[in-house]
Design brief:
The protein contains five helices and nine strands, in the order αααααβββββββββ. By secondary structure, it is α+β, with helices and mostly antiparallel strands. The protein has two domains: 4-118; 127-209, no CATH class. The strands form three sheets. A four-stranded antiparallel sheet has the order 4-3-6-7, with no helix packed on it. A three-stranded antiparallel sheet has the order 2-5-8, with no helix packed on it.
């Protein structure tokens, strides 16, 4: 699971899975769904500052938190749509997703806020170049993830894409988080076909030269850490 601070909690695809009319409504009414997702995340962040004081950097995106964000963003979309057209159909959707957002918020607070004891930030896309070698010619998708001292892996970076001929891949990680003990490297010929290429964590300051052939038996890149614990919440915030 990703950390709350790693980036968007939900995607447009997540919102569309909850409401199949979303994209049509957004297009018709000129609503920027990405902006609503950003505003919803900022709002959740403010509430998390009270629900889990001083722990925002370590909050893990649980299923309940993800639903809370998605429903709140959809409520914002339909609030804009209704205010634009005063269409009762939009008012119904606004009310529906408002109720669902409050339900998901309540579930998140009853269950507790997921917290990583040693949070590992999501990696940035690594620098990838070609160097002489005998990796099979073709296009490769590559990503990486930082690992802490307990061996927990943070969320993987957005993949880089490199096409090579008569060469192999050299991968240089970005700036490591202060608590990183190493990193893992993933590569494949398709975005869904990337697998781990290193057997032990690569040192923080070390680059990676991909040997041939490409390994295919490793695990795929993960989405981040599981919560180390759930922080109980003493009260549920009410939104007016």
């Amino acid at each position: 699971m990703a950390l709350f601070v790693d980036g968007p909690v939900s995607s447009i695809e997540d919102l569309a899975a909850q409401d199949s009319q979303l994209l049509d409504v957004a297009s018709t009414e000129g609503i920027d769904v990405t902006q609503k997702m950003t505003l919803a995340q900022e709002e959740l962040g403010l509430e998390l500052e009270i629900l889990a004081p001083r722990l925002r950097q370590a909050v893990v995106v649980t299923a309940a938190l993800k639903l809370w964000h998605a429903f709140r963003a959809l409520e914002m979309v339909y609030t804009d749509a209704y205010n634009s057209q005063l269409n009762d159909r939009y008012a119904g959707k606004q009310k529906q997703f408002g109720e669902l957002a409050r339900w998901a918020r309540d579930r998140a607070t009853v269950i507790g806020v997921g917290v990583a004891a040693d949070p590992v930030a999501r990696a940035a896309t690594p620098q990838v170049t070609a160097t002489p070698g005998n990796l099979v010619d073709g296009t490769y998708y590559v990503t990486m993830a930082w690992v802490n001292r307990e061996g927990e892996e943070g969320a993987s970076a957005e993949p880089a894409v490199e096409t090579i001929a008569g060469s192999t891949l050299v991968v240089v990680p970005g700036i490591a988080p202060a608590n990183a003990a190493g990193w893992n490297f993933y590569a494949g010929n398709t975005p869904d076909g990337m697998t781990r290429q290193n057997t032990t964590a690569i040192a923080v300051e070390q680059s990676w030269v991909q040997p041939a052939p490409l390994g295919t038996g490793g695990t795929g890149p993960g989405t981040g850490q599981e919560p180390s614990y759930l922080k109980a919440v003493a009260r549920v915030l009410q939104r007016g």
